[in-house]
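Recap from last week: sequence in, structure out.
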Amino acid sequence: MIRTRLNEALKDAMKAKDKPATSTLRLILAALKDRDIAARSRGNSDGVDEDEILDLLQKMVRQGRDSIEMYQKGDREDLVEKEQGEIEVIERFLPKQLGEDETKAAVEEIIGEQEASTIKDMGRVMGELKKRFAGRMDFGKASGLVKARLS
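Predicted structure tokens:
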């Protein structure tokens, strides 16, 4: 589904001569192709599934935000704008992200369900969060919340 939407968006961007969107979509599809090749070597001939695609897109957004921070420190507004444009294109394919309050509530719920009480339980909690909220949660922030709660 996402894979199809990405390919259709690339065609539309090319027809509209939208160079920034075209280059971003090509970047996404190239990364996706790399993951598909890696998946084939593990015996998965169908390529990566939807959750892995969402994970890939989230990582690309996170990397873009990290780059923006560095570019702002280096006073490179031209590169900041380019990264922000790429992030906007990528975010079109991600489901609505959970807000901070929703993330906190989800973390509390999973900790309760898993009966987690120490930092040793963090892996189990994060695994369940990733399973339930793939593509909808910033797991970097969630990890910090889980760690603070279990410490």
